[in-house]
Amino acid sequence: MNTAFESVLRGKHIVIVGGGSGMGKATAELAASLGAKVTIASRNAEKLTTVAATIEGDVSVAAVDTTDEARVKAWAAELGPVDHLVISASSAAHGAFGDLPTDDLRAMLEAKFIGPYVTAREVLPYLNEGGSITLFSGVLSRRPSAGATGLGAVNAAVEALAKGLAQELGGKARVNCISPGMVATEAYSGMPEEAREGMYAQVGGSLPVGRVGQADEIAMAVVMILANSFMTGTVLDIDGGHLVKA
After folding, report:
1. How far is CA 184 from CA 44, 117, 180, 220, in A?
2. Across the beta sheet with 173-180, what order do the strands follow?
3. Is 0.90 topped by the overall pTM?
């Protein structure tokens, strides 16, 4: 499999927004191992530099805040030609419908939907022929959960964006969306270890595969999307069977 993907991705410029941690970092590691030229981006330049030093291959860094539209525009112009854009940067706000502060909802919408929307729009003029854009949503878009209705709605908006852009940008770019289930990443590092592991056990135990996901498993799916030129308008569920569980 790696040989086939390497033949398609070697030398391609892959920009990963959110590449400093979690699923984005795992994607950067895999893409670089396949010979791609990788740019990882996020708000924290210092963190990006530290992460880039741990990845073998051609990896550069570019700090950007996707909620700053003017900065995104300037950043995109600095990238040079791009073959594939992956936007895994995310944000989650949990809370019951009547309790979730509106400001928290707006912040999540800015980070998870508007930021990726603006980023894709500004990078598009620099996207090479045959290029692609890959967005990230999440399983709650189609398997809602009490206390996460806002997050599910934003995820659904991201998926609608991917499908709409796949049609609108046909002939210019392929557009797809990864919809992960729960994945063990740094996103949960703020939780006490016992609570975190208990959550993983509870959620994983409810899934057909019997566990939560790992970042490298999501990365494999992203790379497949980048390499497969017949995929567009697809929402790819990598969720351990979350959508079909009892």
Report:
1. 21, 26, 11, 15
2. 58-63, 37-42, 13-17, 82-87, 127-136, 173-180, 235-238
3. yes
Per residue in 74-129, pLDDT (tens digit) is: 999 999 999 999 999 778 888 889 999 999 999 999 999 999 999 999 999 999 99
Residues 227, 4 contacting (CB under 8 angstroms):
yes
The phi and psi torsions of 180 (rounded to 5 degrees) equal -80, 155
**Which residue type occupies 223?**
V
CA distance 47 to 54: 11
Q: List the Cα angle 69/73/78 in 5-degree steps.
A: 145
Task: Read off the tokens for 162.
Answer: 């991917």
- What average pLDDT does the segment 177-194 reach? 93
212: pLDDT strictly greater than 80:
yes
197 secondary structure, DSSP code: H
Tokens at 113, concatenated: 């939907």
What is the residue whose two structure tokens read 């609608």?
160
Q: Which superfamily does CATH assign the domain made up of 2-238 to?
A: NAD(P)-binding Rossmann-like Domain (3.40.50.720)
Q: List the chain domain ranges.
A: 2-238
Residues 228, 233: Cα–Cα separation, whole Å: 12
Q: How crowded is residue 217: how many other Cβ atoms within 10 Å of its Cβ?
A: 14
What 72-76 contacts at long range (C-beta under 8 Å, 24+ apart), as own/partner pairs, is 72/115, 72/118, 72/119, 72/122, 73/122, 75/41, 75/122, 76/119, 76/122, 76/123, 76/125, 76/126
2 pLDDT higher than 90: no
For 229-238, what is the mean pLDDT?
98
Evaluate whether 86 touches 222 at the Cβ level (below 8 Å). yes
| Pairwise CA distance, residues 223 & 86, whole Å | 10
